[in-house]
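---------- Forwarded message ----------

FYI, see the PB1 domain-containing protein record below. Original note from H. follows.
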Amino acid sequence: MAGKKKVSSNPPAPPSPEILTQVASIKAAADKEFLGKNFIGAVEQYETAAKLLNADVPEKLDLLQKSANCYLLAKKYKEAVKTCTTVLDQQPTSAGALKTRSKAYEALGFFKQALSDAQNLIQTGDAVSEETLAMERRLKDVISANKAKLSNSDASSPKNPAPQNSFPYMVTVKATLGEDTRLLHASIMVSYYELYEAIKAKFPGSGPIVLKYQDKEGAMVTMTCRNDVQTYLTELVTQFQKQAGPRLNNQLPPMRIQVVKVSSEAEVPRPPADELPPRPEAAKDGKVEQQAQQELEVDDWLMDFIRAFQEITGIDPAAQSEHINMASEKLTRAVEATLSDEKAQPLFDQASEHFRDATASSLVQWGNVNIVKADRQAQQLLKAGKAVEGKALDAMLKEYDECEKKYNDALKYKADSWEAEASLAQLEWERCKAKLGYLVPSPSVEEAKALADAEAAKEQVSQAVKSALAKIDVKKVGQGSKHIDSVTKLFEKALVMAKADDERKKKREEERKAEDAKKSDALVPPEPELTEEQKRQLQIASAAGNVLIMHGNILYEWSQVLAAVGKEWKPVLDLGVSKFRAAGAAEPDIRAALKNHTQKDQLDLGPDPEPPATPSAMEAPKETEAKADDKMKAPEAKGLPSLEVKKKNKA
């Protein structure tokens, strides 16, 4: 038929070698951003690389999955959902996408969607593990607990007293159908959809219903959206203020809802789209419906101050001005009363600590700018075929001096800043490399495009490193050793600080969980025990893990310098590997690093261990357990061989 496009039956052409090389280069940059915990920067690089590939290329989905994982780590949960959905449209059984989207949905509070993805993940068979099963159990428990929150307990019961200083406030709802009145409790931020569903559950055999309330003028108003509910609540607040003065506490009059039967569902007002929970398919275009309230990150000390303010003054700082009906003079006096109260004073210590930490962190980042400037100066000279010496070297060292001042200023604000201390160690290594002339040129865009594939790009970098190492003057290595001694001392201090920081965070998290458990009305399910892989990931992501990885990387590079000038390098490499293992790095990652070492031929690494086979889901339990035992033994037999230097064969 005319007007229709003719669809070609020819398969799409594979990406050209130039495109694959460009993708590999961008992906390597993204991986570097990821390792540096610049997750948003990594997302930009992964998505840039993905755009270069057609939708049918498997590597494109892998890049998008990496992007989704970065969004999750950066707490950009809606973006993570959108990206995972794009992957699942092409590959519905992608275990990585299902797992990441489940976690993102859970973080957004969409527990039913999170549970659906978790169950689909288990059904794939490839991703069944204690972690995924624990995800399913936890989400089921959370959904059950949420259903129990809207209870039919009597509001006057001494077993269920109204919280006096909770935030946000709760209100009692009295829903009446004919002569039958039933009670429930809801947040004052409840939406029409949430209220309707809760009341509908109280009268399960009622059929189609509408909700009405009597306004201040005596008219019966039908509820259709959140604004209607909030208008009614506003009238209750105003009524209460007239009786008890401008003190908004939790003793609001109950919401009296008339439940009226109607003949058909067509007569029931449909909730607005922004009040409905999201459907998984709605995320395909990135249009995930909003929750009742937008999720915001607020510092704990600020929330504590809000609670202290309302406890001391009886005023809700989150209420709109027309609900409070206070003159500015009275509000000012209320704030002053809070500031002078003993309960508020510790909160300002927390605020001071927060701003101090932010200042220290900003100074570290400011110092990093000087390092980048120095590197750019060096790269320009190297690409022009010039040596970085004389005035050029002095300019680089001047940037490093400016950087050191900022790092030390950070330590003046926060004496136990492991980030600043570790950055000083890294800076000492940068100085060492500059003085040794160990500066490796980065490949230009034109050079990257000229390479045939990723392996060729990798080989070019390896050759560039070897070339830089070959130019090192053995006489300067002694001076470099002094820098390495300083590096070690600085990292030792940074590690002590990092471990203390990890302990503080762990303690705060335990205290927060204990406090949440005390405040929660619902039964909080116990958290599942972490798997070994989860423990390893937490270890490498910790402050101490970061310090150990940084130290290990420098020792790895220093061992290559020593090998290049004929010095003893093996003990230094062994020490670097021990740092990697102490940080929780995976053995395959360590092995990959060793295979890239300039002296890899002198290391008896042996063949790569074969990946353990996944048992069939149809196998009997005993057979599966037997195979699992075999898989546990396999790495022990092959493992990562000891890093002994090969003995040369005698002629």
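H. also flagged this: The CA atoms of residues 18 and 449 lie 5 Å apart.
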